[in-house]
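Data availability (excerpt). The following record was deposited with the supplementary files.
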Amino acid sequence: MNSTADTGAVVVSVRLVGSMQIGSNVLEVSDLMVALEAIRRTKSIKGLSETLGLSYRTAWCRLQMYDVALGQPLVRKTRGQGSELTEFGAALAEALTSAVAGLDANLGRETRAIEHRLRRLLTGRSEVLTLAASHDPLLIEVLRELPAEHGQIRLSVMGSSTAVKLLLDGGVDAAGFHCGALTPEQADVPFSGVSSSAGLVPRPLFEREQGLLLAPGNPLGIRTLADLTAGGVRYVNRQPGSGTRSWFDRMLAKAGLSPDAIQGYAVEEFTHQAVAAMVACGAADAGLGVRVAAERLGLDFLSVGWETYYLAASRSLASPMFDELVAAVRVRAAETTGYRLSREHKSRA
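Predicted structure:
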Protein backbone atom coordinates (compact mmCIF):
# COMPACT_ATOMS: atom_id res chain seq x y z
CA MET A 1 0.00 0.00 0.00
CA ASN A 2 1.31 3.45 -0.95
CA SER A 3 0.76 5.50 2.22
CA THR A 4 1.27 9.18 2.92
CA ALA A 5 4.37 8.26 4.88
CA ASP A 6 5.76 6.57 1.76
CA THR A 7 5.18 9.48 -0.60
CA GLY A 8 5.88 12.30 1.85
CA ALA A 9 3.22 14.40 0.09
CA VAL A 10 1.75 16.71 2.73
CA VAL A 11 -0.10 19.81 1.54
CA VAL A 12 -2.34 21.83 3.85
CA SER A 13 -4.83 24.42 2.63
CA VAL A 14 -6.57 26.66 5.17
CA ARG A 15 -9.18 29.05 3.86
CA LEU A 16 -10.98 31.97 5.44
CA VAL A 17 -14.72 31.49 5.92
CA GLY A 18 -16.84 34.11 7.64
CA SER A 19 -20.12 35.97 7.71
CA MET A 20 -21.52 39.40 8.53
CA GLN A 21 -24.70 39.79 10.54
CA ILE A 22 -26.60 43.05 10.21
CA GLY A 23 -29.82 42.93 12.17
CA SER A 24 -31.50 39.67 11.21
CA ASN A 25 -29.60 39.44 7.90
CA VAL A 26 -26.53 37.22 7.54
CA LEU A 27 -24.18 37.74 4.57
CA GLU A 28 -21.34 35.42 3.61
CA VAL A 29 -18.19 37.53 3.34
CA SER A 30 -16.63 35.53 0.49
CA ASP A 31 -19.83 35.73 -1.63
CA LEU A 32 -20.13 39.47 -1.05
CA MET A 33 -16.49 40.06 -1.98
CA VAL A 34 -16.85 38.07 -5.20
CA ALA A 35 -19.90 40.09 -6.17
CA LEU A 36 -18.23 43.45 -5.45
CA GLU A 37 -15.08 42.47 -7.35
CA ALA A 38 -17.14 41.24 -10.34
CA ILE A 39 -18.97 44.57 -10.59
CA ARG A 40 -15.72 46.52 -10.20
CA ARG A 41 -13.99 44.45 -12.88
CA THR A 42 -16.76 44.02 -15.48
CA LYS A 43 -18.83 47.15 -14.79
CA SER A 44 -22.02 45.24 -15.59
CA ILE A 45 -24.72 43.07 -14.04
CA LYS A 46 -24.16 40.67 -16.93
CA GLY A 47 -20.53 40.30 -15.88
CA LEU A 48 -21.69 39.59 -12.33
CA SER A 49 -24.13 36.93 -13.52
CA GLU A 50 -21.45 35.24 -15.64
CA THR A 51 -18.94 35.32 -12.76
CA LEU A 52 -21.45 33.71 -10.39
CA GLY A 53 -22.90 31.33 -12.99
CA LEU A 54 -26.37 32.73 -12.41
CA SER A 55 -29.07 34.15 -14.66
CA TYR A 56 -29.18 37.91 -15.06
CA ARG A 57 -32.40 38.09 -13.03
CA THR A 58 -30.99 36.00 -10.17
CA ALA A 59 -27.77 38.06 -10.05
CA TRP A 60 -29.83 41.26 -9.94
CA CYS A 61 -31.99 39.84 -7.14
CA ARG A 62 -28.86 38.99 -5.17
CA LEU A 63 -27.63 42.58 -5.44
CA GLN A 64 -31.01 43.82 -4.25
CA MET A 65 -30.81 41.43 -1.30
CA TYR A 66 -27.41 42.93 -0.38
CA ASP A 67 -28.82 46.46 -0.64
CA VAL A 68 -31.70 45.61 1.72
CA ALA A 69 -29.44 43.85 4.23
CA LEU A 70 -26.90 46.68 4.29
CA GLY A 71 -29.38 49.51 4.04
CA GLN A 72 -27.28 51.12 1.32
CA PRO A 73 -27.09 50.61 -2.46
CA LEU A 74 -23.91 48.88 -3.63
CA VAL A 75 -24.26 49.46 -7.36
CA ARG A 76 -25.56 52.23 -9.60
CA LYS A 77 -26.22 52.14 -13.32
CA THR A 78 -24.62 54.81 -15.47
CA ARG A 79 -25.99 55.66 -18.89
CA GLY A 80 -23.76 54.31 -21.63
CA GLN A 81 -21.20 52.98 -19.13
CA GLY A 82 -22.90 49.98 -17.54
CA SER A 83 -22.84 49.64 -13.77
CA GLU A 84 -20.35 50.70 -11.12
CA LEU A 85 -19.96 50.51 -7.37
CA THR A 86 -21.39 53.35 -5.33
CA GLU A 87 -19.11 55.19 -2.92
CA PHE A 88 -20.46 52.96 -0.17
CA GLY A 89 -19.91 49.82 -2.26
CA ALA A 90 -16.34 50.83 -3.16
CA ALA A 91 -15.51 51.65 0.48
CA LEU A 92 -16.97 48.33 1.67
CA ALA A 93 -15.00 46.42 -0.99
CA GLU A 94 -11.77 48.15 0.07
CA ALA A 95 -12.41 47.47 3.77
CA LEU A 96 -13.10 43.76 3.19
CA THR A 97 -10.13 43.36 0.85
CA SER A 98 -7.73 45.00 3.32
CA ALA A 99 -8.99 42.91 6.22
CA VAL A 100 -8.78 39.65 4.28
CA ALA A 101 -5.27 40.49 3.03
CA GLY A 102 -4.06 40.78 6.62
CA LEU A 103 -5.85 37.60 7.65
CA ASP A 104 -4.49 35.74 4.63
CA ALA A 105 -0.94 36.49 5.77
CA ASN A 106 -1.71 35.02 9.19
CA LEU A 107 -3.28 31.97 7.55
CA GLY A 108 -0.20 31.58 5.36
CA ARG A 109 2.09 31.47 8.39
CA GLU A 110 -0.14 29.07 10.27
CA THR A 111 -0.52 26.84 7.20
CA ARG A 112 3.27 26.51 6.97
CA ALA A 113 3.42 25.60 10.67
CA ILE A 114 0.71 22.95 10.31
CA GLU A 115 2.42 21.44 7.27
CA HIS A 116 5.75 21.11 9.11
CA ARG A 117 4.18 19.46 12.13
CA LEU A 118 1.95 17.17 10.09
CA ARG A 119 4.83 16.14 7.84
CA ARG A 120 6.90 15.12 10.85
CA LEU A 121 3.98 13.17 12.33
CA LEU A 122 3.11 11.32 9.12
CA THR A 123 6.50 10.77 7.52
CA GLY A 124 9.02 11.00 10.34
CA ARG A 125 11.31 12.79 7.90
CA SER A 126 13.62 15.70 8.59
CA GLU A 127 12.12 19.06 7.86
CA VAL A 128 13.47 21.93 5.77
CA LEU A 129 12.71 25.30 7.37
CA THR A 130 13.23 28.68 5.74
CA LEU A 131 14.88 31.53 7.64
CA ALA A 132 15.17 35.09 6.31
CA ALA A 133 17.67 36.94 8.46
CA SER A 134 19.70 40.08 8.82
CA HIS A 135 23.41 39.37 8.47
CA ASP A 136 25.26 38.31 11.61
CA PRO A 137 28.64 36.50 11.62
CA LEU A 138 27.94 34.43 14.74
CA LEU A 139 24.52 33.25 13.54
CA ILE A 140 25.92 32.17 10.17
CA GLU A 141 28.75 30.24 11.79
CA VAL A 142 26.40 28.35 14.10
CA LEU A 143 24.06 27.51 11.23
CA ARG A 144 26.95 25.97 9.29
CA GLU A 145 27.87 23.76 12.25
CA LEU A 146 24.40 22.48 13.16
CA PRO A 147 23.97 18.73 12.59
CA ALA A 148 21.22 17.70 10.18
CA GLU A 149 19.60 15.20 12.55
CA HIS A 150 16.46 17.27 13.09
CA GLY A 151 16.30 18.79 9.63
CA GLN A 152 17.75 21.66 7.67
CA ILE A 153 17.47 25.43 7.91
CA ARG A 154 17.66 27.22 4.58
CA LEU A 155 19.04 30.72 5.21
CA SER A 156 18.51 33.82 3.04
CA VAL A 157 20.46 36.89 4.16
CA MET A 158 18.72 40.25 3.70
CA GLY A 159 17.87 43.44 5.54
CA SER A 160 15.92 43.20 8.79
CA SER A 161 12.82 44.96 7.45
CA THR A 162 12.68 42.75 4.34
CA ALA A 163 13.06 39.61 6.48
CA VAL A 164 10.25 40.67 8.81
CA LYS A 165 7.96 41.58 5.89
CA LEU A 166 8.48 38.11 4.43
CA LEU A 167 7.55 36.52 7.75
CA LEU A 168 4.45 38.71 8.13
CA ASP A 169 3.36 37.79 4.59
CA GLY A 170 3.78 34.06 5.28
CA GLY A 171 6.72 33.74 2.87
CA VAL A 172 9.18 32.16 5.33
CA ASP A 173 9.03 30.14 8.54
CA ALA A 174 11.14 32.53 10.64
CA ALA A 175 12.93 35.87 10.53
CA GLY A 176 16.13 37.05 12.20
CA PHE A 177 16.20 40.81 12.78
CA HIS A 178 17.31 43.70 14.97
CA CYS A 179 16.01 47.21 15.61
CA GLY A 180 19.08 48.93 17.01
CA ALA A 181 18.48 50.23 20.51
CA LEU A 182 14.69 49.76 20.12
CA THR A 183 12.45 46.81 20.90
CA PRO A 184 10.05 45.59 18.18
CA GLU A 185 7.18 47.29 20.01
CA GLN A 186 9.03 50.63 19.98
CA ALA A 187 10.10 50.39 16.34
CA ASP A 188 8.09 51.38 13.30
CA VAL A 189 6.43 48.95 10.90
CA PRO A 190 7.11 46.24 9.96
CA PHE A 191 8.83 45.40 13.27
CA SER A 192 5.87 46.47 15.41
CA GLY A 193 3.85 43.77 13.63
CA VAL A 194 5.93 41.03 15.24
CA SER A 195 3.73 40.56 18.28
CA SER A 196 1.69 37.99 20.16
CA SER A 197 -1.49 39.53 18.76
CA ALA A 198 -0.30 38.45 15.29
CA GLY A 199 0.46 34.94 16.55
CA LEU A 200 4.22 35.55 16.42
CA VAL A 201 6.89 35.09 19.09
CA PRO A 202 10.10 37.19 18.91
CA ARG A 203 12.79 35.22 20.78
CA PRO A 204 15.83 37.26 21.87
CA LEU A 205 18.87 35.34 20.61
CA PHE A 206 21.61 37.58 21.98
CA GLU A 207 22.80 41.13 22.36
CA ARG A 208 25.64 42.36 20.18
CA GLU A 209 27.80 45.47 20.23
CA GLN A 210 27.78 47.79 17.25
CA GLY A 211 30.08 50.70 16.55
CA LEU A 212 32.17 52.52 13.99
CA LEU A 213 34.75 50.33 12.27
CA LEU A 214 37.89 52.45 11.82
CA ALA A 215 41.33 52.03 10.27
CA PRO A 216 43.98 50.61 12.66
CA GLY A 217 45.14 53.32 15.06
CA ASN A 218 42.22 55.57 14.02
CA PRO A 219 44.49 57.92 12.01
CA LEU A 220 41.71 60.46 11.42
CA GLY A 221 40.91 60.72 15.12
CA ILE A 222 37.22 59.92 14.75
CA ARG A 223 35.54 60.09 18.18
CA THR A 224 31.91 61.02 17.47
CA LEU A 225 29.34 60.82 14.69
CA ALA A 226 29.95 64.51 14.01
CA ASP A 227 33.53 63.67 13.04
CA LEU A 228 32.17 61.75 10.04
CA THR A 229 31.23 65.09 8.45
CA ALA A 230 34.83 66.34 8.48
CA GLY A 231 36.52 66.89 5.15
CA GLY A 232 38.30 63.85 3.76
CA VAL A 233 36.42 61.28 5.89
CA ARG A 234 34.88 58.57 3.68
CA TYR A 235 32.00 56.58 5.10
CA VAL A 236 30.64 53.22 3.88
CA ASN A 237 26.98 52.56 4.64
CA ARG A 238 24.70 49.53 4.88
CA GLN A 239 21.83 49.04 2.45
CA PRO A 240 18.38 50.61 3.05
CA GLY A 241 16.14 48.28 5.03
CA SER A 242 18.95 46.84 7.12
CA GLY A 243 18.67 47.25 10.87
CA THR A 244 22.14 48.77 11.02
CA ARG A 245 21.27 51.42 8.41
CA SER A 246 18.05 52.29 10.25
CA TRP A 247 19.93 52.64 13.55
CA PHE A 248 22.56 54.86 11.92
CA ASP A 249 19.85 57.10 10.43
CA ARG A 250 18.14 57.44 13.81
CA MET A 251 21.45 58.38 15.46
CA LEU A 252 22.12 61.00 12.78
CA ALA A 253 18.67 62.51 13.28
CA LYS A 254 19.13 62.59 17.06
CA ALA A 255 22.51 64.32 16.66
CA GLY A 256 21.06 66.82 14.19
CA LEU A 257 23.35 65.64 11.38
CA SER A 258 22.33 65.56 7.73
CA PRO A 259 23.18 62.47 5.64
CA ASP A 260 24.19 64.87 2.87
CA ALA A 261 27.05 66.08 5.06
CA ILE A 262 28.63 62.59 5.14
CA GLN A 263 30.84 61.70 2.19
CA GLY A 264 30.06 58.11 1.14
CA TYR A 265 26.62 57.93 2.74
CA ALA A 266 25.29 56.57 -0.56
CA VAL A 267 28.04 53.92 -0.78
CA GLU A 268 26.39 50.69 0.39
CA GLU A 269 27.47 47.17 1.36
CA PHE A 270 25.27 44.25 2.39
CA THR A 271 27.18 42.58 5.25
CA HIS A 272 29.26 43.55 8.28
CA GLN A 273 32.29 41.78 6.78
CA ALA A 274 31.96 43.77 3.56
CA VAL A 275 31.93 47.05 5.49
CA ALA A 276 34.97 45.93 7.48
CA ALA A 277 36.77 44.89 4.29
CA MET A 278 36.16 48.33 2.73
CA VAL A 279 37.80 49.99 5.74
CA ALA A 280 40.61 47.44 5.94
CA CYS A 281 41.62 47.89 2.31
CA GLY A 282 41.58 51.69 2.56
CA ALA A 283 38.52 52.25 0.35
CA ALA A 284 36.67 53.85 3.30
CA ASP A 285 37.59 55.37 6.64
CA ALA A 286 34.54 54.37 8.71
CA GLY A 287 31.40 52.27 8.68
CA LEU A 288 28.91 51.00 11.25
CA GLY A 289 29.16 47.30 12.10
CA VAL A 290 29.53 44.66 14.80
CA ARG A 291 32.65 44.44 16.96
CA VAL A 292 33.52 40.92 15.80
CA ALA A 293 33.91 42.17 12.20
CA ALA A 294 36.41 44.80 13.35
CA GLU A 295 38.41 42.32 15.42
CA ARG A 296 38.73 39.79 12.62
CA LEU A 297 40.38 42.36 10.34
CA GLY A 298 42.38 44.17 13.01
CA LEU A 299 40.36 47.40 12.87
CA ASP A 300 39.76 49.96 15.58
CA PHE A 301 36.26 49.98 17.05
CA LEU A 302 34.30 52.90 18.49
CA SER A 303 31.23 51.51 20.26
CA VAL A 304 27.84 53.19 19.83
CA GLY A 305 25.86 50.67 21.91
CA TRP A 306 24.32 47.23 22.27
CA GLU A 307 21.24 45.87 20.52
CA THR A 308 19.11 42.72 20.73
CA TYR A 309 18.98 40.31 17.80
CA TYR A 310 15.67 38.42 17.57
CA LEU A 311 14.47 35.21 15.97
CA ALA A 312 10.72 35.39 15.29
CA ALA A 313 8.38 32.62 14.19
CA SER A 314 4.76 31.56 14.50
CA ARG A 315 3.77 30.53 18.01
CA SER A 316 2.37 27.29 16.61
CA LEU A 317 5.61 26.30 14.84
CA ALA A 318 7.07 23.66 17.15
CA SER A 319 10.49 22.91 15.63
CA PRO A 320 13.33 20.97 17.26
CA MET A 321 15.61 22.51 14.64
CA PHE A 322 14.90 26.08 15.70
CA ASP A 323 15.15 25.12 19.37
CA GLU A 324 18.57 23.62 18.67
CA LEU A 325 19.64 26.74 16.78
CA VAL A 326 18.56 29.07 19.60
CA ALA A 327 20.39 26.99 22.22
CA ALA A 328 23.60 26.77 20.16
CA VAL A 329 23.62 30.48 19.33
CA ARG A 330 23.15 31.48 22.96
CA VAL A 331 26.03 29.25 24.07
CA ARG A 332 28.33 30.78 21.44
CA ALA A 333 27.21 34.33 22.25
CA ALA A 334 28.06 33.89 25.93
CA GLU A 335 31.69 33.13 25.05
CA THR A 336 32.30 35.51 22.12
CA THR A 337 33.64 39.06 22.43
CA GLY A 338 31.11 41.61 21.28
CA TYR A 339 28.17 39.35 22.16
CA ARG A 340 26.30 38.56 25.37
CA LEU A 341 23.08 36.90 26.46
CA SER A 342 20.17 39.29 26.16
CA ARG A 343 18.70 40.76 29.31
CA GLU A 344 15.25 39.64 28.10
CA HIS A 345 16.44 36.03 27.97
CA LYS A 346 18.03 36.24 31.42
CA SER A 347 14.85 37.66 32.95
CA ARG A 348 12.80 34.75 31.51
CA ALA A 349 15.28 32.06 32.53
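Summary of structural features: Residues 134 and 334 are 20 Å apart (CA to CA).
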